[in-house]
Design a protein that fits this description.
The structure holds 2 protein chains of 2 kinds. By secondary structure, chain A is mainly beta. Chain A is 0% helix and 55% strand. In chain A, strands 2, 4, 5, 9, 10 and 11 form a 6-stranded mixed beta sheet that branches. Chain A has a 5-stranded antiparallel beta sheet with strand order 1-3-8-7-6, with no helix packed on it. In chain B, a hairpin with a 2-residue loop joins strand 9 and strand 10. By secondary structure, chain B is an all-beta fold. The radius of gyration of chain B is 13 Å and the shape is globular. Classes of the chains: A mainly beta, B mainly beta.
Chain lengths: 111, 114
């Protein structure tokens, strides 16, 4: 049972525009959410996180929004750059320190 | 560089064989996680160890086993290999930040079963 879902396998965005990646979860016990970025032939790298006590966290061009009532989070990248082209994984954790990952969204930023 | 190391980088073996993947966590991290990523799939959690003890189990097959040693490095053993076991295997370690845990991933081992 997939507790974290990324329903868009791929996304293409023009350079300079906003990229919005979405993620849904089913377990209301999750209290910490993370985004990871993965380039081919490399391991995922941590990008940004948010705890359930917040609804927004910003780090430079990256902002994560959390809507607890909808069990939905999103990652906004603005402005998008060609180097942002990668696979983005959403992850969630609750008690027990176990992480649940989505299937990833492949972002392509077109120069 | 995440500080997590995995060896080997690539492994090619035949069906029915057994292999061992190795992971060294970041210095000071007590938790080690193993994940499998098959083609077009997300990261499937296999197993977690914390300071030498198994902490959580995910979708790990009975043919697979893992352990974490006193020096905190971990090994994932895959036996009676099947073609479907071909995948990227990632190890991650974690530590607490402000009461929450973040994972840091190694570069992965690409296993090809022929």
């Amino acid at each position: 049972d997939q507790q974290v879902k990324q329903n868009s396998p791929s996304l293409s965005v023009q350079e300079g525009r906003i990229s919005i990646l979405n993620c849904d979860y089913t377990n209301s016990m999750f209290d910490y959410f993370l985004w990871y970025k993965k380039y081919p032939a490399e391991g995922p790298t941590f990008l940004i996180s948010i705890s359930s006590i917040k609804d927004k966290n910003e780090d430079g061009r990256f902002t994560v929004f959390l809507n607890k009532s909808a069990k939905h989070l999103s990652l906004h990248i603005v402005p998008s750059q060609p180097g942002d082209s990668a696979v983005y994984f959403c992850a969630a954790s609750g008690t027990g320190n176990q992480f649940y990952f989505g299937t990833g969204t492949s972002l392509t930023v077109i120069p | 560089d995440s500080g997590v190391t995995q060896t080997p980088k690539h492994l090619i073996t035949a069906t029915g064989q057994r292999v061992t993947l190795r992971c060294s966590p970041r210095s000071g991290d007590l938790s080690v996680y193993w994940y499998q990523q098959s083609l077009d799939q997300g990261l499937q959690f296999l197993i977690q160890y914390y300071n030498g003890e198994e902490r959580a189990k995910g979708n790990i097959l009975e043919r697979f086993s893992a352990q974490q040693f006193p020096d905190l490095h971990s090994e994932l053993n895959l036996s009676s290999l099947e073609l479907g076991d071909s995948a990227l295997y990632f190890c991650a370690s974690s530590r607490s930040r402000d009461g929450f845990y973040e994972q840091y991933f190694g570069p992965g081992t690409r296993l090809t079963v022929t």
